[in-house]
Amino acid sequence: MIDYIDRQLITLLQKGLAIVSRPYALLGKQLDITEDEVISRISTLKQIGLIKRLGVIVNHRRLNYCANAMVVFDVPDHLVEQISGHVCQFDFVNLCYLRPRHGEEWSYNLYCMIHGKNREKVLKQLAHLIHSCGLTSVNYEVLFSKKCFKQRSAFYNANLEQEKVFSDG
Question: Minimal CA–CA distance to 17: which of 37, 44, 39?
Fold first, then answer.
């Protein structure tokens, strides 16, 4: 069961971390607890599944990265963990994750995101990735984004009890 301070911490976290050298210390000050206690509470909230992850939201288009491609691969199941380990090592791969297949309609199970300043550069990086990871015989698709959707952090309903799932926005 979470307590009042956990609920307040969740409320503050959904607003985003301050861009300061010690954001957890600042949260602690706001909650009248120590920085170490903030870190411990976040760890506990992650362990019990109330917080899935903490991450940064980058507006790639404002940084002039306008060629954003989701690449999906149909990797044999027995190789997917090994291959994903190689794919995520490339500095131009921003995300790499596994997803379940959806029958014959969508046979892809490995996803990665490549952000680039133009399509030509992204496609060259992808060709290098495919060659380096031995994916030349694997089916894949490149899905370039056409529209930039509003990016935001997760929103939590801090009034919910532990057994209920917080919404992800």
Answer: 39
d(CA 132, CA 18): 39
| Helix (H) or strand (E) segment spanning residue 49 | none
Segment holding 116, helix H or strand E: strand 110-116
State yes or no: pLDDT of 9 exceeds 60.
yes
What is the average pLDDT across 40-65?
81
Per-residue pLDDT averaged across 25-31, rounded?
A: 96
Cα gap 18→27, rounded to integer Å: 9
Could you tell me which of 141, 138, 140, 142 has the C-alpha nearest to residue 76?
A: 138
Report whether pLDDT(157) > 70.
no
A 10 A CB-CB count for 84 gives: 20
HEC sequence for 143-159: EECCCCCCCCCCCCCCC
Distance between CA 115 and CA 94 in Å, rounded? 7
Burial class (CB in 10 A: 0-12, 13-18, 19+), 135: buried
Rounded CA separation 168/156 (Å): 7
